[in-house]
């Protein structure tokens, strides 16, 4: 199976799991908004959960964790799109939640998605200490030491009165984007009680390559293909990997990071080929 076909198949199974969970919730505008926020997308984070679990033979228990990270990621997007933050009106090719409904609904939808993420982890069929490790890890990576910190750093940068340095952008994006990617890629090892170090190294390089690819898409991407507004970073005068390194320089570093990510998977041999393909995919995608 080709990598795009594998990614699409994984996305379909994750979507089916999410649809089942949402169907059990009481009908409301919040549930409708959750379904809207969870529709579409690459499901790369959920894919990483399932593929890392497959490395250790724990994939049958991993679907709630894959659905969980997609809920947490969707919550972060719903809130990030709000006028008080990035003020976006398009996400995954459709109106953002606050545009389709209103800002209060979007806040509640994000809140509900975050709660659902942890509820899904509570249903994992794992030894208690491994389940607790996943919950604690997601709380850390998604909170004030991870993704939320990155969001705050991004907002602060807009009023800093100067462009961020490369080191500052790397730290910011390591929190905003890389933290959830690391949780996803190491989830299988945590579920198996195995060493997470090789997958953490893979995730660190993958997360940086992913963000550089996002910055390149903002400069070169097609809005229809990307499913979101492009050119916003330059329009806002925001420092990015591309603004500091140039298109060619950013692309060169992204390729080197893909090589680094693939090298980190050496302990797993051919069993990690799908994760290697994922690393190559992140810098070739159009959305």
Walkthrough of the structure:
This protein is mainly alpha-helical and 287 residues long. The chain contains 14 helices and two strands. The protein has helices at 3-23, 29-38, 44-55, 63-80, 97-100, 103-122, 128-142, 147-158, 166-192, 197-220, 223-226, 232-235, 241-264, 273-282, and strands at residues 90-91, 94-95. It is globular. The two termini are 21 Å apart.
Quick summary of this structure?
The protein is mostly helical and about 290 residues long. It is built from 14 helices and two strands.
- Whole-number mean pLDDT: 93
* Percent in strands: under 5%
Q: Structural class given helices, strands, pairing?
A: mainly alpha
What's the SSE pattern? HHHHEEHHHHHHHHHH
Number of strands: 2
Strand order of the biggest β-sheet: 1-2
Biggest beta sheet summary: 2 strands, antiparallel
Helix content: over 70%
Rg calculated over all Cα atoms: 18 Å
- What overall geometry do the principal axes of the alpha carbons give? globular
Q: Figure out the total of helices.
A: 14
Poorly predicted segments: none
User: End-to-end distance, in Å?
Assistant: 21 Å
């Amino acid at each position: 199976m080709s990598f795009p076909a594998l990614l699409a198949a994984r996305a379909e199974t994750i979507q089916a799991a999410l649809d089942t969970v949402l169907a059990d919730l009481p009908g409301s505008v919040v549930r409708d908004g959750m379904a809207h926020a969870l529709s579409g997308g690459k499901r790369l984070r959920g894919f990483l959960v399932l593929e890392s679990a497959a490395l250790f033979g724990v994939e049958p228990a991993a679907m709630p964790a894959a659905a969980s990270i997609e809920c947490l990621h969707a919550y972060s997007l719903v809130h990030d799109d709000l006028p008080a933050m990035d003020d976006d009106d398009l996400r995954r090719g459709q109106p953002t939640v606050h545009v389709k409904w209103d800002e209060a609904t979007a806040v509640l939808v994000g809140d509900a998605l975050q709660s659902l993420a942890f509820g899904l982890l509570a249903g994992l069929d794992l030894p208690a200490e491994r389940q607790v490790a996943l919950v604690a890890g997601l709380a850390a990576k998604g909170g004030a030491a991870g993704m939320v910190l990155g969001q705050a750093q991004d907002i602060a940068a807009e009023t800093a009165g100067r462009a961020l340095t490369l080191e500052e952008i790397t730290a910011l994006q390591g929190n905003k984007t890389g933290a959830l990617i690391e949780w996803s890629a190491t989830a299988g090892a945590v579920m198996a009680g195995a060493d997470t170090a090789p997958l953490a190294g893979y995730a660190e390089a993958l997360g940086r390559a992913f963000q550089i690819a996002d910055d390149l898409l903002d400069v070169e991407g097609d809005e229809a293909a990307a499913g979101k507004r492009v050119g916003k970073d330059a329009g806002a005068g925001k420092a990015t990997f591309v603004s500091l390194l140039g298109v060619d320089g950013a692309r060169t570093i992204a390729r080197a990071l893909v090589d680094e990510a693939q090298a980190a998977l050496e302990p797993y041999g051919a069993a990690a080929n799908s994760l290697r393909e994922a690393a190559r995919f992140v810098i070739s995608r159009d959305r």
